[in-house]
């Protein structure tokens, strides 16, 4: 699981230099940070967002065609592309920016290595049918990500502050000490009801799913015995509860008659951090999966050593190891449709890349729509996308500072909730803070720390829409809206922290999202309400155009987007190839 997305790249805080260097078969534009990198504003845009594309001066890696062309190198796109390469498909991943990873890449400023988005992970070391989807993909690629394990984060809520620990009993102790015995009873009641459902929620490995009738062989028939066993072990009442897995999680909570305000608020917080919506809209299956990951015996959280970019590096290694290609600085301007079928893409440089089998878009549903020729878009498809509600955007704060005066036992993660009554989805109310250098020392210079704080998909884009980034109004609003982040950081780090002593101070706004990620309205993703609607599948009304990422099933979050990429890759190969892969990784 991972929460929070922002596509910060070195180009935000650096000056471009027009020299190039090879990195395997990737086209890379080098960048060096300048003296302004410690300011509170972002630097020059990536070359692909200007009128002249750097790609015109770069040689494209290899032939201008592939079996499958993947647009975007986010986790979903890289999982799709790397598995296709593993399936011996000729695949190329096209990335607009000069580093791969989308919202999950890392970037360097003055010796500090920052995470751009996800920082809360678990399940990297899991294996087998019930493993994290990203772990299953890495296993299929023969890659791994070394991690530091931990089991707690600091919580600052209206009731007080405490170290929250995962596991079957630890959080119960926290509740008894900081909330009430009534909260303990209700939380135990919830775990007793939810954990048995995890067998059904996790019975079908995401890597077994495909988007055609072949799923009857790779998933239904293959795992029917384990699914049946799960239902038998749950008993009649548990099996009845399993029917709610595709309903809002609040229905399970309500059926248990949980009344304690803290427990209800905490459940909403977990749902919002995982799925971008509260419990009345979060899919029960997704939450049951998370509970099984976080509240089973022996569970831990994991942080990738060397930063979240290490995950991207592993996926790119897997892609290239099996013959796949990735082209950086290759901005896709349009998906080319001929005779009603997607046949390739046109780059801003003017080059046409032909896709012999399929085009896969890892962009959001709204941005994918904008890549299509208007005359090729079915009206019903356009209307559904335009009517889909969006999660809001983010305020972000990236800091590099001296560790002197900072507590030596500082934890990696901190969650600040200012007011329960406003709701966890209210703007300026919840702040997440990550200090990964406490676990991975190489992320900051000796004796320093690196920090990322953000409001998790709650910053209204409407406040920023139409503002000139160079205007006084924009700068004033940025200072005002980032103050909640600064105050949260000061609360978490204590009196030894000083804003003035930060060597790197970077503030991101929803316009930063929109500009650099090309994310429609800077959104976190679709605000799909379980029970009322569902995440779209991966096919589109346009033959040979498929989609993966957080605009598709299973939804938002690292495990979900990894699963979506795998499902698309599986759908583009034969059932026998798919089954052979499942056999090879032992699931």
Care to describe what's here?
With 587 residues, the protein is an alpha/beta fold. The chain has 16 helices and 20 strands. The strands form five sheets. Strands 3, 4, 11, 12, 13, 14 and 20 form a seven-stranded mixed sheet that branches. Strands 9-8-16-17-18-15-19 form a seven-stranded mixed sheet. A two-stranded antiparallel sheet has the order 1-2. Helix 1 packs parallel to helix 2 (133-141), helix 1 packs parallel to helix 10 (309-321) and helix 1 (75-86) runs parallel beside helix 15. The protein is globular and about 65 Å long. The two termini are 21 Å apart.
Which descriptors apply to this entry?
disordered N terminus; seven-stranded mixed sheet; alpha/beta; 587 residues; 33% helix
The overall strand count is: 20
How confident overall, as mean pLDDT?
A: 85
* Helical coverage, percent range: 25-40%
Distance between the termini: 21 Å
Q: Specify the number of helices.
A: 16
Overall, the morphology is globular
Strand content: 15-25%
Give a short account of the largest sheet: 7 strands, mixed
Structural class: alpha/beta
Radius of gyration: 23 Å
Residue stretches low in confidence (pLDDT < 50, at least 5 long) are: 1-58
Short description:
By secondary structure, the chain is α/β, with parallel strands linked by helices. It contains 16 helices and 20 strands.
Task: Note the topology.
Elements: E1 14-20, E2 29-33, E3 65-71, H1 75-86, E4 91-94, E5 106-109, E6 112-115, H2 133-141, E7 147-150, E8 152-157, E9 160-165, H3 170-178, H4 181-194, H5 198-201, H6 215-242, H7 249-255, H8 261-275, H9 284-294, E10 301-304, H10 309-321, E11 325-327, E12 332-338, E13 341-347, E14 352-361, H11 365-371, H12 379-387, E15 396-402, E16 413-417, E17 430-434, E18 448-454, H13 472-493, E19 504-508, H14 510-517, E20 545-547, H15 558-571, H16 575-584
Parallel strand pairs: 3-4, 3-14, 4-11, 8-16, 14-20
Antiparallel strand pairs: 1-2, 5-6, 7-10, 8-9, 12-13, 13-14, 15-18, 15-19, 16-17, 17-18
Helix pairs in contact: 1-2, 1-10, 1-15, 3-4
């Amino acid at each position: 699981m991972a929460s929070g997305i922002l596509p910060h790249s070195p180009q935000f805080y650096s000056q471009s230099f027009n020299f190039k260097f090879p990195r395997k078969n990737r086209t890379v534009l080098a960048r060096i940070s300048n003296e302004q990198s410690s300011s509170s504003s972002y630097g020059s845009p990536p070359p692909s967002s200007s009128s002249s594309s750097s790609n015109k001066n770069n040689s494209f890696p290899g032939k201008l065609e592939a079996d499958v062309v993947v647009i975007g190198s986010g986790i979903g796109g890289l999982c799709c592309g790397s598995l296709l390469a593993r399936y011996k498909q000729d695949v190329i991943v096209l990335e607009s920016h000069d580093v791969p990873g989308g919202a999950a890449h890392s970037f360097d400023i003055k010796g500090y290595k920052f995470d751009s988005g996800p920082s809360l992970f678990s399940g990297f070391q899991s294996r087998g049918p019930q493993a994290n989807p990203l772990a299953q993909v890495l296993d299929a690629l023969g890659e791994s990500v070394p991690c530091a394990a931990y089991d707690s984060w600091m919580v600052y809520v209206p009731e007080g502050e405490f170290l929250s620990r995962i596991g079957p009993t630890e959080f119960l102790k926290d509740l008894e000490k900081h909330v009430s015995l009534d909260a303990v009873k209700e939380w135990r009641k919830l775990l007793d009801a939810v954990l048995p459902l995890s067998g059904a929620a996790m019975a079908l490995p995401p890597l077994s799913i495909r988007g055609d009738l072949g799923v009857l062989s790779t998933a239904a028939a293959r795992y029917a015995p384990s699914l049946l066993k799960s239902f038998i072990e749950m008993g009649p009442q548990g099996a009845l509860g399993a029917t709610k897995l595709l309903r809002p999680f609040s229905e399970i909570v309500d059926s248990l008659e949980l009344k304690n305000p803290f427990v209800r608020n905490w459940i909403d917080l977990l749902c919002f951090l995982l799925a971008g919506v509260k419990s009345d809209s979060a899919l029960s299956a997704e939450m049951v999966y998370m509970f099984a990951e976080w509240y089973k015996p022996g569970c831990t959280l994991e942080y990738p050593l060397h930063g979240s970019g290490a995950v991207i590096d592993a996926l790119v290694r897997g892609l290239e190891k099996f013959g796949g290609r990735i082209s950086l600085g290759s901005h896709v301007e349009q998906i080319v449709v001929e005779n009603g079928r997607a046949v390739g893409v046109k780059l801003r440089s003017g080059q046409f890349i032909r896709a012999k089998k399929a085009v896969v878009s890892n962009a959001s549903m709204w941005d994918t729509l904008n890549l299509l020729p208007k005359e090729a878009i079915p009206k019903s498809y356009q209307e559904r996308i335009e009517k889909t509600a969006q999660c809001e955007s983010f305020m972000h704060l990236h800091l590099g500072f001296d560790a002197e005066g900072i507590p030596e036992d500082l934890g990696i993660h901190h969650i600040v909730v200012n007011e329960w009554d406003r709701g966890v989805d209210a703007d300026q109310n919840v702040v997440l803070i990550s200090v990964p250098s406490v676990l991975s020392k190489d992320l900051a210079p000796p004796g320093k720390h690196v920090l990322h704080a953000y409001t998790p998909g709650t910053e209204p884009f409407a406040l920023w829409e139409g503002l000139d980034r160079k205007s006084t109004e924009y700068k004033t609003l940025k200072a005002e809206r980032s103050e909640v982040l600064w105050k949260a950081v000061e609360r978490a780090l204590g009196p030894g922290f000083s804003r003035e002593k930060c060597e790197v101070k970077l503030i991101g706004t929803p316009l930063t999202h929109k500009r650099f990620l090309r994310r429609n309205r800077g959104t976190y993703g679709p605000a799909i309400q379980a029970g009322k609607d569902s995440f779209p599948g991966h096919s589109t009304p346009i033959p040979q155009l498929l989609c993966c990422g957080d605009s598709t099933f299973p939804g938002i979050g690292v495990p979900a987007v990894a699963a979506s990429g795998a499902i698309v890759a599986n759908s583009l190969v034969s059932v026998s190839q798919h089954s052979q892969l499942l056999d090879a990784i032992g699931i």
